[in-house]
Specification:
The protein is of the alpha/beta class. It contains seven helices and eight strands. It has a single domain, classed as Rossmann fold. The strands form two sheets. Strands 1, 2, 3, 4, 5 and 6 form a six-stranded mixed sheet that branches. Strand 3 and strand 4 form a beta hairpin. Helix 5 packs across helix 6. The protein binds flavin mononucleotide. The site of flavin mononucleotide has 21 residues, from helix 1, strand 3, strand 5, strand 7 and helix 5. Flavin mononucleotide binds next to helix 1, strand 3, strand 5, strand 7 and helix 5.
Length: 170
């Protein structure tokens, strides 16, 4: 079976996973649900949220299923250097990797995440504003930190959908 499997904390990854499942017709399971529905032979497109550059749940999914591609949902767009660091840290090699902007919603975070994120926001906004020139990814990061909210957008999924239609047909 082919399936989309996701793990989400505040709902952005879940929203992308639901949009992708609806547009592609591929079955969708949370990482938790998948354990009773899928096995080692099943082909999985895995979607997880970024937490300190770790793709949440990916290591678990890679042990249990045949992960064919990964989507990482983070704060905003990332540059090539960050993408390479994320792939290295999560040991994602030889399969397609897509980074998607999720945004941040402080009110959905429990205190143990909210407090460090508020500190990080202050630091990031200050250091990004100090830079004379920002890259496109840095501009997007600054915008995401200063305009809280979901950045989930169906258009961001187009490259993923193209890959699914070409390589991940049921
Ligand atoms: C503790 C914590 C760590 C985070 N680390 C990163 C990170 O390393 N890179 C990034 O781009 N976004 C990071 N984010 C932002 C989340 O990945 C982003 O809010 C994402 O949309 C969350 O997805 P979800 O709504 O599916 O949980 C972090 C958020 C939290 C709460």
């Amino acid at each position: 079976m082919k399936a989309i499997v996701y793990e989400s904390f505040t709902g952005h990854t879940k929203a992308y996973a639901e949009l992708l499942s609806k547009s592609s017709g591929i079955r969708l399971f949370s990482l938790e649900e998948a354990s009773s529905k899928l096995n080692r032979e099943d082909d999985v497109l895995y979607m997880g949220w970024l937490r300190a550059e770790a793709v949440s749940g990916y290591k678990k999914a890679a042990k249990k299923y045949n992960v064919c591609a990964v989507c990482a949902v983070g704060l905003a767009r990332i540059d090539e250097k960050t993408e390479a660091a994320v792939k290295k840290m999560n040991n994602i090699f030889g399969i397609p990797f897509f980074a998607l902007p999720g945004g941040v919603e402080m009110d959905k975070l429990p205190g143990y995440y909210k407090i460090p994120m508020l500190v990080l926001r202050k630091f990031m906004v200050r250091s990004l504003k100090k830079k004379p020139v920002l890259t496109t990814a840095e501009e997007d990061q600054l915008d995401a930190w200063t305009h809280e909210g979901s950045r989930v957008n169906a258009e961001e999924l187009e490259p993923v959908l193209l890959w699914v239609r070409t390589n991940f047909k049921t």
